[in-house]
Amino acid sequence: MATLSDPVVMINQGWEKIRVNAIQKLENYLNTGNSQIMFTKKEYMEYYTIVFNLSTLKQENIQQQLYQKYTDSINLYLSQNVLQELQKLHNDELLEALNTRWINHEIMVKWMQRFFQYLDRFYVQINSITPLRDQGFKIFKGVIFQPLISQITDAILENIRREREGELVDVDLLKKTIEIYQFLSNEKLSQETLNCQKYLEDKILQQTQQFYQMQSQNLLSKASLSEILHITNKYYQEEIQRCENYLIFDIKDKLLKEFQQEMLLNHQQGLLERESGIKYLLQQDKFEDLGLLYQLYQNHPASLNPIANAFKDHIYQQGENLVEKFDFSEDVKDHNKMKELLKSTQLVENLVSLLDKYLYMVKNCFQQNAFFERTRHSSFEAFMNKNRDTNRVNMSEVLAVYTDIILRKGGIKIEEAKHEEYLEKIVKLFTHLIDKDIFIEVFRSYLAKRLLIEKSQSIDLERSMISFVKLSCGPQFTKKLEGMLTDLSLAADEQKKFEIHCSSSSQLQQNNISFGITILTTSYWPTYKSFDIQIPREIDSCMKNFTQYYTSKHNHRQLQWCYSLGSSTLGANFQRTGKQYDFVVGTYQLCILMLFNYSQELRYRDIKQAMKFDDETCAKNLKSLMTAKCKLLEIRNEKSGGNFNEDDVIAVNELFTSQLKRVVFPTPVLEEVFKKEIVQEDRSIAIEASIVRIMKSRKKLDHVNLVKEVLQTLQLFKPSPQVIKEKIEQLIEREYLERDPDDKSIYKYLA
């Protein structure tokens, strides 16, 4: 017969008390939702004490039995009360009931864990089994979630479908339900065979793929690319918002990948090549649509290639259309004709506008993507250097001539506030040129003329232009240009000192000629054809005075007079008409005119002999004084053809008239502004210097890498590999380099 002190009796009585007074009371609360029924502190301590006392009985496996009773109690309640109720429900009703039961279950596990807390402290830890709280949720997962997961997931998917089709859904309900999936998939429950979150994720991704596959097929059949992009972007933003609202587990990237695969990637070629495709967007300047296109594809770098290729082809076509309107033939090698053509065709203005447009597009449509910027640059480089290997005029020369028009007085009118900005844009065009050295050489020649004949709009603008080129190429390439401006500043100071010197000398004061000198540094300025001409004695006297003054101060410097860029103002009295004029002429023209102070008429041969000119220079200077507009000289004898004969008699036109008191005569162009031979010589020196520098540093290098490094170091032009090879051979002949005896493709530097 069992007694009250019998452990078995004590266990049964204690458990019955817990089951009836604690567990059934808790279940009743959960079933009715009667919040008035709660456990007081006294009740809680009573039930905890019962479990404690039972756990400390000297009965074999007593704690294991209590752990099992804890499990069975929760299992029984869920099976008989919760599962049967949920199995009858669908869609939102199921989700609402599930969330209610989940909250109830959290309460149940909380109190049950408190009652059986003593087991957690010792039995669970000693035996390394699942803690009571986790065990409670594992039971829910096994009893409720595993049998119903398909039904619950279908309810979630139905809500997602409805929301994608524009219906309103209970976002909070979905979020709370998905949080249950998340909780039941945490690491503590990971040993379970069912991964709830992975199950839901796979189903959502499958539904997403099917939904957007259907949507894309519908759009492809009836919508333009612009419409598709806007609808796709709308879907894209909705999916992002959906992930933020309730798809809170790690599914965003995978979901967007499925979305983009179906809506964008699978049909990309068809989207881009359709009539309303990317060519249409580029041609019609659909900046917003292009921005959307890039935004939607930017996470897939490989998919940007066809977009960039279309962008490249479009830019090249637009640029080529502009360039082909300009005549690059031999006819425009005369820079005066080129300037007229540049003004009429507005080639550079259109290129600047084109550059602005596509820089804006790269920045605002393609988010300053480096790949698209390289694409834009290569397209401009391709069409701007199209003629560089032909006999046609080079774009580098054209751009330099245009720059002269901009910086010269009386050139193209540009708002003063925008002048520097426009020059900067021209330099941006310049960066696309391969033959940058040609641009700099032509620019230097025109800069010299603007500075020396005072035709520059502003020295500050000249400095700005040079600074932009300096930023683009580096200081070593603008040293001469900066030196020219420095020379001009120093020359002004030297002129003032000379004037002071003249005013202090009684002998020098007797000459009434206003005589100005500009001292130039030979290495900075272009070289000019020079003749040892017969200088009028009045001017020759001034030159000798200045030479004496200058050499006394700088005895180690040598002066070389350059007449071709000089200018003068000459007074003229015409007795037959009684009129007086001031003629603005070049130094050569001045010397020719002053010959007529001593003779009424001169033969062509006499003028040429007196001036020590060659035939071309003499003819050009005479013709410049015989223009139809300003016919100061005339040929007295009968003449046929346009060339001068040795016996032609030339005299002053005594009936010369002009409405202007001050008459400016055009200075003839005596030599080409751009001499290709000089550029080729400079290039040859630069290539050889680059090869020697590289080999001196490397000591030993193979042919392919040497050519590659030479091309990388030459910034102002890009020679062909064949030219580099020829220079290497020449350096081998001059014993700067030698070939490796074992491998002829390897070169060695000879110290």
Automatic annotation (TrEMBL):
An example Gene Ontology CC term for this record: cullin-RING ubiquitin ligase complex
The family this protein is said to belong to: Belongs to the cullin family.
Species in which this protein is naturally found: Stylonychia lemnae (Ciliate)
A GO molecular function held by the record: ubiquitin protein ligase binding
Cullin family profile domain segment(s): 394-626
Alphabetic keyword roster: Isopeptide bond, Ubl conjugation
Protein name from the UniProt record: Cullin-1-like isoform 1
Gene: Contig15206.g16202
GO biological-process terms attached to the record: ubiquitin-dependent protein catabolic process
InterPro entries: Cullin, Cullin-like_AB, Cullin_CS, Cullin_homology, Cullin_homology_sf, Cullin_N, Cullin_neddylation_domain, Cullin_repeat-like_dom_sf
